[in-house]
Amino acid sequence: MAGGAEAARLSAEISRREQELRGLRERLAAVLAGGAAGDVAATEEGASAFPGELPPLPAQASLSTADILRYSRQLVLPELGVRGQLRLSRSSVLVVGCGGLGCPLAQYLAAAGVGRLGLVDHDVVETSNLHRQVLHGEARRGLPKAVSAAAALRLLNSTVQYVPYCCALSPRTALELVRQYDVVADCSDNVPTRYLVNDACVLAGKPLVSGSALRLEGQLVVYNYQGGPCYRCLFPKPPPPETVTNCADGGVLGVVPGIMGCIQALEVLKIASGMGSSFSQFMLMFDAREGRFRNIKLRPKKADCAVCGDNPSVTCLQDYEAFCGSSATDKCRTLHLLSSEDRVSVEEYKQLLDEQVPHVLLDVRPQVEVDICRLVHAVHIPLSKLEEKDEECLEYLEKRICEEKQRTNGQTYFPVYVVCKLGNDSQKAVRILQELPVKEFGSVSAKDIKGGLMAWASKIDPTFPQY
Amino acid sequence: MWVERRSSRVSDLSKLELSHGDIRSLLKWIKQNLLKERPELFMQGESVRPGILVLINDADWELMGELDYKLQDQDNVLFISTLHGG
């Protein structure tokens, strides 16, 4: 009983401190967003309403002494010069996404002296962002990324105006927002947002510098610029959602979006200063493994394009999540393949373990994830091997099931529990196991563990790593 | 999906025995010979699925006639999956 009282006291203490922490974070966000004079901040409180029309940037006729000193190393470039620098100072750039691409992009644009940077991101800073989203830091975990980015940039160049927008770009607000900026940089992480940004740029007549990165690869194209194609000219139909990989599932080496974001910044600067872009109707592909850049000649603007063609069918912004069949975030999808009797919760599995119920635990994650962390008693066969019905792997599984089964008194349906990271692949694996022909060891009863090892980590064993 | 097979070099185009020698028949050959599991990750109908860009000698296949392009010796055909992460 004493233990129960102590547990209650500790949980009360934890929730009190968490509340205190939330309060501190909110205050910090407000202070950071309130930053330098002249900034037009959209803090979390005002997140639902985008700030109205921004005042025009002051038309600077000449550079100040301070400007000349600060930008001297780029002013002496004949390609830029005073004219180009003044153009930059009169330019505004909307950065959609303050993540792996948006951080380095915004950093170089701020350093180079663009007039105004709009920073859009609905997300908050998390520990797993820090390896690539280099404007944020450990101290700003839990803060809105747009606010965190603005705070970091302000330390770098306080003469630039920063406008953080702590919400997702939506069909309702995108057009109004894009109209207020001269150039748009798509640094987003999902398909619906890419179509939304494209359509808004076409309807508002703004050039779009689009970057993307995954694993060890990056791509960059400039759309809707000087008669070139738009994103829809290239990709009239969205990809099937199950073929799209996000950074959490596929992984990404931080420096790869870093490199792509820097090249995006370069193209924005060239467009804003009047130099023009090298990537209208061209795609730059970067292969980090081979250290190779490829320049791909793309199709021209399509006369039959749904948004930028001669007879467009898209004349206002739509529901892009419905169009793409996926949500406008890069969070992992949750599959519902199996019915509830074919699934167990992590709590139920924990109880099975405690009661020493004979079973086989099958971990179907790729080897690289098993190397990160694993439950020691699990049998490991990656889903891909099950999908291709790899004989060696199936024999191994059979052997392990037979071994375990010998310890029981010949159950008809021997239980096999399948686990993966989040509980999606494990459902696919259960389906495969259920369809396998009955072998000499008899039938198995395959179930998956809901929420996978990440649920195990958050609900059962806090020392188990989350990734 | 091309993680394992990053590139395939064909020493003699005629060995593939493509019925028409065009991209359409190359895709058919790939589907029959290289795609063991889940061809829907690559194909849709007789063409590639949305989100895959086909490059012929580093140019968008749309510039070359798409499915009807007749393959030449030394041609470099590349299938790239568009990336969406950031």
TrEMBL record, chain A:
Single GO molecular function: molybdopterin-synthase sulfurtransferase activity
Binding sites annotated in the UniProt record for Zn(2+): C230, C233, C305, C308
Key words, A-Z: ATP-binding, Cytoplasm, Disulfide bond, Metal-binding, Molybdenum cofactor biosynthesis, Multifunctional enzyme, Nucleotide-binding, Transferase, tRNA processing, Zinc
Disulfide bonds: C324-C332
Pathway named in the protein's UniProt entry: tRNA modification; 5-methoxycarbonylmethyl-2-thiouridine-tRNA biosynthesis; Cofactor biosynthesis; molybdopterin biosynthesis
Source domain of life: Eukaryota
Annotated catalytic residues: C247 (glycyl thioester intermediate), C420 (cysteine persulfide intermediate)
Binding, ATP: G100, D121, S128, N129, L130, H131, R132, K145, D189, N190
Family from the record: In the N-terminal section; belongs to the HesA/MoeB/ThiF family. UBA4 subfamily.
Protein name: Adenylyltransferase and sulfurtransferase MOCS3
Gene name, Swiss-Prot/TrEMBL: MOCS3
Automatic annotation (TrEMBL), chain B:
Modification 1-thioglycine, positions: G86
Gene Ontology terms: biological process: protein urmylation; tRNA thio-modification; tRNA wobble uridine modification
A GO CC term assigned to this protein in UniProt: cytosol
Record-listed cross-link Glycyl lysine isopeptide (Gly-Lys) (interchain with K-? in acceptor proteins), residues: G86
Pathway as given in its UniProt record: tRNA modification; 5-methoxycarbonylmethyl-2-thiouridine-tRNA biosynthesis
Pfam families: Urm1 (PF09138)
Localisation per UniProt entry: Cytoplasm
Principal subcellular localization: cytoplasm
InterPro entries the record matches: Beta-grasp_dom_sf, Mopterin_synth/thiamin_S_b, Urm1
Keywords: Cytoplasm, Isopeptide bond, tRNA processing, Ubl conjugation pathway
SUPFAM superfamilies: MoaD/ThiS
Reported modifications of this chain: C-terminal thiocarboxylation occurs in 2 steps, it is first acyl-adenylated (-COAMP) via the hesA/moeB/thiF part of MOCS3, then thiocarboxylated (-COSH) via the rhodanese domain of MOCS3.
Biological role: Acts as a sulfur carrier required for 2-thiolation of mcm(5)S(2)U at tRNA wobble positions of cytosolic tRNA(Lys), tRNA(Glu) and tRNA(Gln). Serves as sulfur donor in tRNA 2-thiolation reaction by being thiocarboxylated (-COSH) at its C-terminus by MOCS3. The sulfur is then transferred to tRNA to form 2-thiolation of mcm(5)S(2)U. Also acts as a ubiquitin-like protein (UBL) that is covalently conjugated via an isopeptide bond to lysine residues of target proteins.
Family: Belongs to the URM1 family.
Protein name as catalogued: Ubiquitin-related modifier 1
Native species: Mycteria americana (Wood stork)
Gene: URM1
